[in-house]
Structures are given as structure tokens and as C-alpha cells.
Known about the structure:
The protein is α/β, with parallel strands linked by helices. Helix content is 40%, strand content 14%. The strands form three sheets. A seven-stranded mixed sheet has the order 2-8-7-6-5-3-4, with helices on both faces. GO terms for molecular function: kynurenine-oxoglutarate transaminase activity; pyridoxal phosphate binding. Pfam families: Aminotran_1_2.
Amino acid sequence: MIKSKLPQVGTTIFTVMSKLAADHKAINLSQGYPGFDCYPYLQDLVTKYMNEGYNQYAPMSGVPALRNRLAKKTLSVYDVDYDQEEEVTIVSGATEALYAAITAVVRPGDEVILLEPAYDSYEPAVRLNGGVPVYVALNIPDFSVDWEKVEKAITPKTRLIMVNTPHNPGGYVWTQNDIDTLADLVRGREIYIVSDDVYEHIVFEGKAHIPLFTHPELRKITFACGSFGKTFHITGWKIGFCLAPKKLSAEFRKIHQFLTFSTVTPIQYALADYMEDPSRYLYLRFFYEEKRDLFCKGLESTGLKFTPAEGSFFQCASYGHLSDESDYDLAVRMAKEVGVACIPTSVFYHDKRDHKILRFCFAKEDNELEKALKLLQSGLF
């Protein structure tokens, strides 16, 4: 009989809620993927490169054209220069990037600080590498970082800190003060950073995503993991990247080459062409801000309490003033009885702590959001 390496891991909440949505014909605002297609021109570019015969293995680190395009974008947007040959790696989705980065630096017994609520792939990756998760709760309700708690959590065994900004599920966007404080805490210690930046271009109200690598000290110790899928509405294509200094990238690539080796070839060439126009990622914030605003305006009539998300394509809302029902039970009941599927945020905590907060994905067509809002307004409690 197989002894499970992850005995406590079952079917993810995203699968559970999506199945409930399908079974009960509910509007699915649970799983974090766009409810609309990518731009036809990008599809045309993929077809072009497939028809031209770009259908065999890509180089392990990614096709040069896309690595070059990504390096130029990073220099232009963030004024940070990464060497496309040795510091930029294309991978099969940001989840792979996160796993490879964690694997590159975590050894049995190493402690890894997870800021909760945290995306559900972090903890399993840490445990599979023999690491010991150390949980630090974010402030509620804004999901900002309690830096005193982080400082107390750091020990001589701390090897890695996981960072996610803009934050999923909370929508908090790190400030320069957050970044400077982190740099102060890790200075002089052998601690690395894995930064989950998949929502980097989805920030609102004039806020800016400030990558950790813009701090000269943090750049030396940070794996920055990103997603073309989130940016260009192509989550099903599973294509992401990792930016890291030369020595870290070398270790990262040792893991990557035995996970997927390389990533789908024609899509890499297509993305390199598609990204020639910076507006395709720089103006994404306005596209999603309109959806966030539409959804939040409708939420005002539901009785739920919320603060508009600063980034990501998720909006959290609390209901504790209306009911003592657990967030998991409420989410299930909403899918079955109200007709709207969402995610209970307790699933993002290792101890399933329940703050009576639900997460909704507003990366959907406007008419679908409007239908969901009418359902929520008509009979949530």
C-alpha cells in the first residue's frame, strides 16, 4: 500500500465548487480563470507558428525570442535588467515555477514562512521537499502584512519566505514600505524569497505593482514567478516564467528540466510577437477595474461588507454581521440554492480558520456578473 506523501490533501476546493456550479447550474465565480476568450489575434499567431512547423521541443529555458521580449518588458516597466540567457526561464505555468523555485532552495527541516490566507499550492510544495511550513496570519480585513508577527516567526532554520502580491484571495497590493521592511528583516540571513506575481498587471486606482526585485538587496535572493495565462486570458495554455539572478536560475533550471523540460513551442513564439505592443499588458488594469467596479457596485445591495480589492481579479466580502453559518457551508448553500458559486476563504488557512469571508472572481463577462449580482441581491440570507 502506498504511503501518501500528502495524506491530508484531497480534492481542491476549486474542483469541488466548480462541480457544484455545474451540477446546480450556478454561475461560477469560484475558480480563478477568465470567463472570456483571449484576443483572436493571439490565436492566429499560435496557428501561424504551428503551420510554419514550430512544433518540436523548445529550448529548456524557453525560446530566445520570448525570453528576450520578457527581459525587455521587465527593463521597460520596472527598470530592472535581467539577462535573457541566464536569468529568464519560461515554464509550463506559474504553479510549476513556484514548485521549482521552492524545490531549488528548500531542504528537509528548513522552515518556510507562509503568509495566510495563502494560495493552496504553496504548502504541498514545501512539504514535498521536506520543508516545515510556518504560518503567519495576515491582518483582517485588509490582508496586509503584520511585520511584527513575521519577525517573530523568523528563526535560524528559516530558509524561505513566500510572497504574493497582488494577493490572492485578499486583493492587497504590497507597498514600498512592505518591501523595505522585508529587506530589513532578511538582511544578513540566508533566506530566499519566492514571489508569486501572477496578477502583476491587475492593479487598481492608480496603485502600482512593485516587484520585490526592484529592491537591490531582494533582487539577489528572489525568484519572481509570473503568468502569461493570467495576463492574456489563456490560463488553459499553462505558460509562465521565472526571473531570478544567475546562481538561483541555475538551480531553478535543474529542477525545471526534470519537471517539464520545456514549454509548448508555438505558443512561446506567438507570445513573443503579441507582446510587441505593450498596451496589451499595460492597459489590462483598466479592463479589470471596470469589472471590479461593476461587481462592487452590485455588492452594495447584498448586505455583504467589503472594501474594493486593490489588485487581482478577486473580491472578498464578509457576512459575519448577518450570519454565524460557516463560510464553507454558506458557499455550498449558495451554489445549490442561490445559484452563485464562490470560494470560502477558510480553505486558504492551514487550520481552516473562518473569518466569515467569501471570495468571488469577477474576471467574467459583464452580463454574467450582473446575473450573479441579481441572484445575490434577491436571497442570500
